[in-house]
């Protein structure tokens, strides 16, 4: 038993924590209307782990002894729960497989190295013994980036980076912090916060994902408009590879040929094990505000987000939900009484009188950070764009609520799964000129998939992560599955959405990586020579295919 904490083996987050709807009166009617599900149905119990049949470990006693000599007693584990926790990420496909005990291949051993020297010894051991290594951060990915290939005959070791979690140093003058790569989000921000700094990277999975995992999947946090995606935040790296340890020094910009730093970003463990990263950090902002705005409809909201991104304003968050997701947001509010519910009702009456269709309203959150005068100036610049597009300000209340519940929403998928509905997400990025047609095509593709399945289904969307030339559209979809082969049904919907992304000029993923889940669309996204370039790197660095094989390019 190590001191590294993991999520539930069958679902998201911490044991004993889950989503509850009893205090959210609008939730049950909303779900009934959206997908025809009665959420008062008693939840199906999750099996006790003791009933799960886990394939036996293929690790020999000699190999176990050799690995224990590297990481120390108690840090080379072969028990079933450890191995199952390290088999999958947390996509709906993963959750369905876990609940159905579908575990055709699990790692044979889980290793917990304490430092880079141990990681180097593990990599040498794997190359000499022709074993497979799969680095593990928080286990939160949703792209099939962790799972062992089913047909893999060699010994598979999961390398859990959870003991490598120290802040090594801060270069305060340059705003650069060097961390061990296994550090999880809350620990990282706590160590920085204690010294007055922040990295500002807050993915929705923040509580259970790691710095190394963010880098290996090219993650994006909700404040990326100000702090950048992890690709921009990461300045330096140490990566243990079969041939030695790759060192990328933290340089603001370098003209050193094709970017090796960029090659490691998004490499999903295939180009080595990231042991350290130097990241850009910022002084904790004096003021932080997230303001809510209401738009009359999605079309005007999208144009407003475009106009903000091309203006001089530099907010930390630009996010707007389509009408469906706005409805969902309202439905997950706690019962409100007194003044706030009267104000909301009053505002809706005013908007209706102005001719707004309340079913088309879109809720937006814009974040501002910095000195009070900077925040005031940003708000005023954004305010003038917002007003030009006829939107109204609803103040700090909805923004504060969004901030509070953003890390709870991931629990909703397990709640729905307990009651027979599957929900997951697909996200993309495209130039501004293509976003609206892409949105419409994806909605139509999902509806077509639901019609093909003969089931009621739901799809909703928000825009986030704006850039000068375009933005990310993030879709959430849900349907009541047939209970017979929910994964096959999921494949129909997911595939329709992903294909619509590519056909509409979007990418297969803005920040969730390729893994195995999105690999079928890679060639259409980056062309055959692009895939060849990546394959060439994998072959050069890892000729024995010891590092997380089958991810990103699945046709090898
Ligand atoms: C509910 C939910 C919400 C999410 N929200 C977001 C979001 O807002 N933004 C976002 O970007 N993503 C989000 N994700 C996806 C996921 O959290 C990210 O992909 C995250 O970056 C994965 O980090 P991890 O530490 O959990 O990595 P893991 O899942 O453990 O691993 C992911 C991949 O990285 C590799 N890897 C991990 N550590 C290392 C290392 N040290 N060296 C080399 N390779 C390594 C693994 O081998 C694997 O290929 C969400 C997922 C869920 C389930």
UniProtKB/TrEMBL annotation:
<dbReference type="Pfam" id="PF01565">
    <property type="entry name" value="FAD_binding_4"/>
</dbReference>
<keyword id="KW-0560">Oxidoreductase</keyword>
<dbReference type="GO" id="GO:0016491">
    <property type="term" value="F:oxidoreductase activity"/>
</dbReference>
<feature type="binding site">
    <location>
        <position position="413"/>
    </location>
    <ligand>
        <name>substrate</name>
    </ligand>
</feature>
<dbReference type="InterPro" id="IPR016166">
    <property type="entry name" value="FAD-bd_PCMH"/>
</dbReference>
<dbReference type="GO" id="GO:0008610">
    <property type="term" value="P:lipid biosynthetic process"/>
</dbReference>
<dbReference type="InterPro" id="IPR016169">
    <property type="entry name" value="FAD-bd_PCMH_sub2"/>
</dbReference>
<dbReference type="InterPro" id="IPR016167">
    <property type="entry name" value="FAD-bd_PCMH_sub1"/>
</dbReference>
<dbReference type="InterPro" id="IPR036318">
    <property type="entry name" value="FAD-bd_PCMH-like_sf"/>
</dbReference>
<protein>
    <submittedName>
        <fullName>Alkyldihydroxyacetonephosphate synthase</fullName>
    </submittedName>
</protein>
<keyword id="KW-0285">Flavoprotein</keyword>
<feature type="site" description="Important for enzyme activity">
    <location>
        <position position="319"/>
    </location>
</feature>
<dbReference type="InterPro" id="IPR006094">
    <property type="entry name" value="Oxid_FAD_bind_N"/>
</dbReference>
<dbReference type="Pfam" id="PF02913">
    <property type="entry name" value="FAD-oxidase_C"/>
</dbReference>
<dbReference type="InterPro" id="IPR004113">
    <property type="entry name" value="FAD-bd_oxidored_4_C"/>
</dbReference>
<dbReference type="GO" id="GO:0071949">
    <property type="term" value="F:FAD binding"/>
</dbReference>
<dbReference type="GO" id="GO:0008609">
    <property type="term" value="F:alkylglycerone-phosphate synthase activity"/>
</dbReference>
<feature type="active site" description="Proton donor/acceptor">
    <location>
        <position position="474"/>
    </location>
</feature>
<keyword id="KW-0274">FAD</keyword>
<feature type="binding site">
    <location>
        <begin position="268"/>
        <end position="274"/>
    </location>
    <ligand>
        <name>FAD</name>
    </ligand>
</feature>
<dbReference type="InterPro" id="IPR016164">
    <property type="entry name" value="FAD-linked_Oxase-like_C"/>
</dbReference>
<comment type="similarity">
    <text>Belongs to the FAD-binding oxidoreductase/transferase type 4 family.</text>
</comment>
<feature type="binding site">
    <location>
        <begin position="217"/>
        <end position="220"/>
    </location>
    <ligand>
        <name>FAD</name>
    </ligand>
</feature>
<feature type="domain" description="FAD-binding PCMH-type">
    <location>
        <begin position="103"/>
        <end position="284"/>
    </location>
</feature>
<dbReference type="InterPro" id="IPR025650">
    <property type="entry name" value="Alkyl-DHAP_Synthase"/>
</dbReference>
């Amino acid at each position: 038993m190590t001191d590294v904490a993991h999520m539930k083996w069958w679902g998201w987050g911490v044991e004993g924590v889950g989503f509850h709807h009893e205090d959210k009166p609008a939730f049950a009617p909303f779900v009934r209307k959206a997908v025809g599900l009665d959420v008062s149905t008693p939840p199906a119990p999750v099996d006790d782990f003791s009933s799960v049949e886990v394939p036996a470990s293929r690790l020999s006693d000699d190999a176990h002894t050799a690995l224990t000599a590297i990481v120390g007693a108690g840090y080379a584990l072969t028990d079933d729960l450890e191995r199952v926790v390290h088999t999958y990420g947390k996509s709906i496909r993963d959750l369905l497989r876990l609940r159905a005990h579908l575990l055709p291949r699990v790692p044979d051993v889980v290793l917990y190295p304490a430092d880079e020297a141990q990681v180097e010894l593990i990599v040498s051991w794997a190359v000499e013994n022709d074993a497979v290594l799969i680095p593990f951060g928080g286990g939160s990915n949703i792209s099939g980036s962790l799972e062992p290939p089913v047909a893999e005959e060699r010994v598979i070791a999961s390398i859990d980076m959870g003991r490598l979690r120290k802040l090594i140093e801060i270069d305060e003058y340059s705003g650069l912090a060097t961390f061990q790569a296994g550090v999880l989000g809350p620990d990282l921000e706590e160590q920085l916060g204690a010294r007055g700094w922040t990295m500002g990277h807050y993915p929705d999975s923040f509580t259970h994902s790691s710095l190394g995992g963010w880098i290996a999947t090219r993650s994006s946090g909700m404040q990326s408009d100000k702090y950048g995606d992890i690709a921009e935040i990461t300045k330096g790296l140490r990566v243990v590879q079969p041939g030695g340890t790759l060192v990328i020094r933290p340089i603001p910009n370098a003209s050193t040929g094709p970017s090796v730093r960029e090659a490691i970003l998004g490499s999903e463990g295939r180009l080595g094990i990231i042991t350290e990263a130097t990241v850009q950090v910022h002084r904790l902002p004096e003021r932080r505000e997230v303001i809510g705005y209401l738009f009359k409809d999605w079309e005007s909201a999208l144009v407003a987000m475009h106009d903000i991104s091309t203006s001089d304003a530099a907010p930390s968050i630009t996010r707007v939900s389509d009408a469906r997701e706005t409805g969902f947001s309202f439905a997950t509010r706690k019962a409100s009484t007194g003044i706030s519910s009267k104000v909301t009702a009053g505002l809706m009456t005013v908007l209706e009188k102005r001719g707004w269709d309340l079913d088309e309203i879109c809720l937006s959150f814009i974040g501002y950070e910095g000195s009070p005068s900077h925040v005031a100036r940003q708000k005023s610049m954004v305010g003038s764009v917002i007003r030009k597009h006829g939107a109204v300000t609803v103040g700090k209340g909805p923004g504060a609520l969004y901030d509070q519940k953003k890390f709870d929403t991931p629990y909703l998928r397990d709640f729905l799964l307990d009651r027979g509905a599957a929900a997951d997400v697909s996200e993309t990025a495209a130039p501004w000129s293509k976003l609206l047609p892409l949105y419409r095509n994806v909605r139509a593709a999902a509806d077509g998939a639901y019609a093909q399945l003969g089931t009621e289904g739901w799809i909703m969307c928000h825009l986030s992560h704006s850039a000068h030339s375009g933005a990310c559209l993030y879709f959430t979809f849900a349907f009541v599955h047939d209970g017979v082969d929910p994964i096959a049904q999921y494949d129909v919907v997911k595939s329709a959405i992903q294909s619509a992304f590519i056909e509409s000029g979007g990418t297969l993923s803005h920040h969730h990586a390729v893994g195995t889940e999105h690999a079928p669309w890679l060639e259409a996204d980056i062309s055959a020579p692009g895939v060849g370039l990546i394959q060439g790197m994998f072959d050069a660095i890892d000729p024995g295919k010891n590092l997380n094989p089958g991810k990103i390019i699945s046709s090898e």
